[in-house]
Specification:
The strands form two sheets. This protein has a five-stranded parallel β-sheet with strand order 5-2-1-6-7, with helices on both faces. The longest helix has 22 residues. The chain is α/β, with parallel strands linked by helices and about 300 residues long. The N and C termini lie far apart (about 40 Å). A hairpin with a 4-residue loop joins strand 3 and strand 4. The protein folds into two domains: about 180 residues, Rossmann fold, CATH 3.40.50.720; about 120 residues, N-(1-d-carboxylethyl)-l-norvaline Dehydrogenase, domain 2, CATH 1.10.1040. The protein has twelve helices and ten strands.
Length: about 300
């Protein structure tokens, strides 16, 4: 199996690095100083589960140098998914499997809008990780996991082929019974803590323990739940309680990557998180006042970040 990683950040660098480090054929699309550092020193992964250095089969910024792929993991930010889907067209075979694993509720749909939906599985990952410096990935929290599945909930043979790649790489992974529910459950968590965290500059633990912010977390998640139900996602009725419990179990000092991006003046996934819920609410005729407040307060910062060269 030839696996291609699009985006070698905290997610792609960790999971792609694990696959490469298990003597499987991996090509990576990276750029700039990050690319140069990997070419010179290998991909270095610093992990709470053990550090390693790996040299993938190919690391390049030119998709035309990449051989046809059996499996493609799109690990970019959510606003870059459609561009990534355009990028991979030259390396698709008839049976290539494509899995977007970044945060967001509609990434599979974005990929399907660009390439034939027969290629696409739904996916998500769970990990706290980031680029520490060029060529160096830091995994600093959560047991890394990839969850994936057919968008129509079928149990295809290709799911087992993908699982074999992940199993050999040695990271936790699971075939989902309903990947849309799993995607929206992860989205509910990350969108809930990201925007409010950026707005308050507080850690997940600080927000959870603050009585009023705890209420706002719950209200944000509840709005997301109502949107999901209106879109036909079969979310469990107790999911909001479950998400709040999950938030309470996170490391006290943890912050989400979107929060860190906003606080550091970088373009973020704000439009794809709270902004997405606001837009879907307008389409569906549902009020989303808490998500709307968070989005409106942060949108000027987001716009300014995107004007930077």
């Amino acid at each position: 199996m030839h696996t291609v990683i699009i985006g070698v950040g905290g997610v792609g660098g960790y999971f792609g690095g694990k696959i490469a480090n298990s003597d499987q054929k991996v090509s990576m699309i990276a750029r700039g100083n990050h690319l140069e550092a990997i070419l010179q020193n290998g991909l270095q992964v610093k992990s709470i589960d053990g550090d390693f250095v790996t040299r993938p089969f190919l690391v390049t910024d030119d998709i035309h140098k990449v051989e046809k792929a059996d499996l493609i993991l799109i690990c970019t930010k959510s606003w870059q998914v459609q561009d990534a889907a355009e990028l991979i067209k030259p390396i698709l075979k008839d049976d290539t499997v494509v899995i977007p694993v970044q945060n967001g509720a509609d990434n599979a749909e974005k990929v399907c809008s660009v390439v034939d939906e027969k290629h696409v599985l739904g996916g998500l990952c769970k990990i706290y990780s980031k680029i520490e410096s060029p060529g160096v990935i830091s995994h600093f929290g959560h047991t890394p996991e990839v969850i994936f599945g057919e968008l129509d909930k079928s149990r295809s043979d290709r799911l087992q082929s993908v699982k074999a790649v992940f199993d050999k790489a040695g990271f936790k992974n699971k075939i989902s019974e309903d990947i849309r529910v799993d995607i929206w459950s992860k989205f509910m968590f990350i969108a809930t803590v990201s925007g409010l965290g950026a707005l308050t500059r507080a850690t997940i633990g600080e927000m959870y323990e603050h009585p009023e912010l705890n209420k706002m977390l719950r209200a944000t998640a509840t709005e997301i739940y109502k949107i999901a139900i209106a879109k036909g996602i079969e979310m469990p009725s107790a999911i909001v309680d479950g998400i709040m419990t999950f938030i309470g179990k996170q490391p006290f000092t943890a912050t989400a990557s979107t929060q860190r991006d906003i606080m550091e003046g970088r373009p973020s996934e704000l439009d794809n998180f709270n902004g997405f819920i606001v837009k879907e609410g307008k389409k569906l005729g549902l009020d989303t006042p808490i998500n709307g407040f968070i989005y409106s307060c942060l949108q000027p910062m987001e716009a300014k970040a995107r004007l930077k060269p």
